Amino acid sequence: MNVYIYDKTFDGLLTAVFDAYFRKTFPDFLLSEGDALPLFYDELHTVVTDEEKAARVWRGLQKKVSASALGCLTQSWLSELPDIGMLIFRYIRKAIDAPRSIETNFGDPDVLQLAQIWKKVDGERVHLMQFVRFQKAADGTFFAAFEPQYNALPLTIQHFKDRFADQKWIVYDMKRRYGFYYDLQEVTTISFDDDSKAAHLITGMLDESLMDENEKIFQKLWKTYFKAICIKERMNPRKHKKDMPVRYWKYLTEKQGNEK
User: Fold this and answer.
1) Is the pTM of this model over 0.85?
2) What is the mean pLDDT of residues 16-33?
């Protein structure tokens, strides 16, 4: 039984693949530093992340599967599921060793599971784009926060940049404590170290004292409009929660004070 220790980065995972083929020993477990080791194992190998090794593995994959399948791998990685590293490792190994593309072989449990995970992460991407509610701050910057189940925020940035190219904005992942800031020219990654000094990083909603004056008016109008178009006799709570997951409600303007 072989154990590989890596840094839980995607490049680290690709480097582990490179090392496995070079060493001709493949891991039964992919762990990170500090994880509990299995009671019995034959070999322990520590992977040192190497961008060139990772790039060589990626170039090899490009010859074996389509760009769509590669996107499935990187997007599934963003699920952050406990065993996603080992699952992707097995997929990559099968893709490299197979005489033809495995990407549509859904009879293989690893191929099927990755496709299912990709679908969930992509669904989260769509939800982020659907349910983002920017609030305009007094300095003119638009702010939006949410807590996605999967780390799907990076998949939405090009959409926000194209859709809101004429305004400064911040989109922030409350769960992972990082976000992106657009200054009308480029997007940069940001993180706030001390959330206690910014209540909106806890609630996801700007305090009225930080809002642009027109934002306060707009939010009141939006709540009034939302309430007016809701016909009680046609309400279907079960479908409503399916179409608009409850975990997003606390960040939706129209749901403030109306969360039933």
Assistant:
1) no
2) 96
